[in-house]
Amino acid sequence: MERSLVLIKPDAMERGLGGTIIGRLQQQGLKLLALKLLHVDEDLAKRHYAIHRDKPFFNDLVEYITSMPIIACVFEGEGAIDLIRRVMGATDPAKAEAGTVRADFGLDIQRNATHASDSEENARKEIGLFFTDDEIFDY
Ligand code: CMP
User: Fold this and answer.
1) Run of H or E residues at 70
2) What's residue 60's pLDDT?
């Protein structure tokens, strides 16, 4: 069993797509273990995206992810990390396969509707940034 952190990003929140995207993941049999609406502050944004701190788009990314409340969730399932990344599609919506979340809803490489963990190690770190243990339901 794997867990992954999924964020519904500002561009998707703005267009009321949270339920649709979460529904697509639930339809794949993934179990929703935690969910919250939160306004990410600069410190959390910088820690979550620390791996990108030297990239030219880092400051824009921090500004974007802190621009309005977003939804954070934890999903669990067998092979959840790869499955969720397949449901989401490529980071750049222009390159995402038809029928994926980013092909259907992403606007551009930054405003790409969602974030999903890319490895078990990063999932553990990211989940720990957004949720305390008692906010994650084991059922
Ligand atoms: P995400 O999966 O949240 O992980 C890092 C984010 O950085 C990515 O989705 C995009 O939103 C953003 N990103 C990645 N590459 C670029 C880029 N070349 N220009 C702007 N933003 C990018």
Assistant:
1) strand 70-77
2) 98
39, 48, 52, 115: the active-site residue: 115
- Establish whether 52 is a catalytic residue: no
Mind listing the pLDDT tens digit for each residue in 15-51?
A: 999 999 999 999 999 999 999 999 999 999 999 999 9
Q: Indicate which residue's Cα is closest to atom 11 of ligand 1.
A: 110
- Tens digit of pLDDT for each residue in 104-119? 999 999 999 999 999 9
32 lines ligand 1 (CB under 6 A): no
Residue located nearest, by CA, to atom 8 of ligand 1:
110
Contact at 8 Å (CB) between 101 and 55?
no
Do the Cβ atoms of 7 and 101 come closer than 8 Å? no
Residue 137: strand pairing partners: none
